[in-house]
Amino acid sequence: MKSFLFKFLSVVVLFFSSISFAYSSETTMRISLQLPLKSHLGQNLLLFKKEIENRSNGEIKVEIYDSAQLYKDKEVPAAVGAGSIESGVASLTRYVGDIPAVDLFYQPFLLNTDKKVRKAVSKGSSIRGPIDNAIKDTGSTVLWWQAYGNAIMLSNGQAIKNPSDMKGKKVRVFGKTLGTFVKAAGGAPTLISGSEQYLAYQRGTVDVGMTGVSGVKSRKLFEVMDTITKTNHGVIEFIVVANTKWFNSLSSKHKEIIIKSAEIAEKDVRDNVAKIEDDAYKLAKEKGMKIITPSKSDIDAFKAASKPVYDDYKKNAGSLGAQLLDAASKL
What we know:
By secondary structure, this protein is of the alpha/beta class. It has a single domain (14-329), classed as D-Maltodextrin-Binding Protein, domain 2 (3-Layer(aba) Sandwich), CATH 3.40.190.170. 49% of the residues lie in helices and 18% in strands. The chain contains 14 helices and ten strands. Strands 1, 2, 3, 4, 7, 8, 9 and 10 form an eight-stranded mixed β-sheet that branches. It is globular, with a radius of gyration of 23 Å. The chain starts with a helix and ends with a helix.
């Protein structure tokens, strides 16, 4: 009887131990996203989620909180760095307060071809490598970069195809350097979060918008603006970051799964961003928006007006900024 009881208790202990182990081996990764899940960045996160959960056999569970449910874009760097959430998506320019050099991508017309952009954002490149390393000092680890496309102008009625068209206009911007660009062109910049754009345009808080064309589609901005000007004056990049302490606490197996899934997600969004932009322009036309491409002389006028932007960057971005500018000149 004692022998049977001992065996029975041993089985019970092993059973509950296995449950405890299974539970402890599970990892939950919450990701904050300011855009709607239907946006191409949201769809990219869904691809990442699928890859991770399949590769880990469900050991890693990914929860996506889209449309700024938890944090606005500007709040993500601090929230992830402090460990308030495991991961988040933020516009690269949101790190400009800690790392002014990240706004290299908003130096007007600097990275003006897809070939240059791809070289700049490739993992370990002379531009991305130092930026990823600098972000580690904020308590976060960069998992992958999400291509969002080129910066464009939105307006009602009059296209913003020349600096003279911007004079006296209130312009929505999403970064300090873009604000300097607007000032140099004669406008008045207003920093507005991406999730608050629609209402800002609808209420007339600003006269001109600045975003990526994919946002026109995902945020239905065609309902509140009627003209797109393809200035393509900057490159909009988002990054997916994870809290470094949390990431380092994971098993080697789980870290490898996350890294591999991030690589797959990064390649997918980078390879498809051109088509994503084309589809967004087609939808904008279908919705009645005018699509304006500035002439070479108009772009030259913007370039001439942009000198203060470069001067400001060189002054504030320090040695890292000088290093990145030099690297960009060699692309």
